[in-house]
Amino acid sequence: MGVRTAAAAWWHRVVAMAAATGPTRDRYVDFLRVCAIGVVVLWHWALSVVYWSGDRWVNPNPLHTVPGGWLLTWVGQVVPLFFVVGGYANAAGWWAARRDGRGVRGFLARRLRRLLLPVAGFLAVWAGVEIVAHLLVPGYPGALRFAMIVFTPLWFIGAYVLVVVLTPVTASVHRRARWVAVGTLAAAVVAADVGRFAAGITTLGWVNTALVWVLIHQIGYFYQDGWATRLRPGQSLALAAGAVAVLAALTSLPAYPVSMVAMIGQEHSNIYPTTMVIAVVAVLQSAIAMRWRAPLSRWLQRRRVWACVVAVNSVIMTLFLWHMTALLVVLELLRAAGISPLSRPTVGWWLQRPFWVLAPAVVLVVLVAIFGRLEAAGRSTHALGPTPRT
After folding, report:
1. How far is residue 58's CA from residue 343's CA, in Å, rounded to a whole number?
2. Residue 113: CB partners within 8 Å, gap ≥ 6?
3. Contacts of residue 334, Cβ cutoff 8 Å, sequence gap at least 6
4. 227-239 pLDDT, tens digit each
């Protein structure tokens, strides 16, 4: 089968999936997921200064050279939004499992298979590359040395597995006492940060790296149960303004950097170990998302628009897992040709940004065509069935 024929057949399947979307499907959830992953990929490709340091590829971001650039991270650090969306999807999946009689085991089997099968394929391929390279390349330093940028984003997978495993408990507690549940988690997050920064108990930073993501995932339950969708536009904007005020107050303290991503010149990062500031970012992003939910949901009723969202969602884990490998392929091809990427964000560096979107995208299309089947195999039910909010 030719490339064009295979692409046409794939698009036909996507259109069929889109047409079969259940009437209760909240399409905006899928759209937000696509937006979040899209920002992650583009940020890593085009808004990181990736260069060869002598024995490894490094990828610091250039925000320290852009006056006020840190402010972009308050909306551009989209991992919190992805966890909010995950809260919606996992709660819906849990209540569906309860109704179908599948229980905890059935829920976890379905969710974790869909999540971990593509991860297993990714790790298996890289393990194979590692073995072959050690055998054939003299002095090979190991992927964890020269290509650590490929694996660094995988911390997200571990955090997400945690919130999935806890969903049967956290969703049930939310149904009984949602404000008590979220308030207790928020208090624990604040206490951990106080212990870390005021009392010097550094291990609490790693405790909060778990607690903050559980809290953010819990925020997604307010979307799934309908509370967030009942917010009027003015209320959403007021909530966003309140989150901005809290962020401004917290980042004025020495403990919390103003940037939501690691930035040159910062002593530490808000994202890892994770601080309470990231939970406030989740509230801000959720409020903005709810403000635009109604008009964008109407837009998503368009067939071609929705088909594009379905297409990306069908391979979204594959995109996330392999996007840095695609970048590494381009970097290694350039290094083999004796071409070095610019190591500082000069005018020339900015002018090259289109190349650093298009070139890795071409490689990623090939990788998705090869490994996207693992993600499809992990979906044991129709990906676009109903997601009720009971």
Report:
1. 10
2. 378, 380
3. 340, 341
4. 999 999 999 999 9
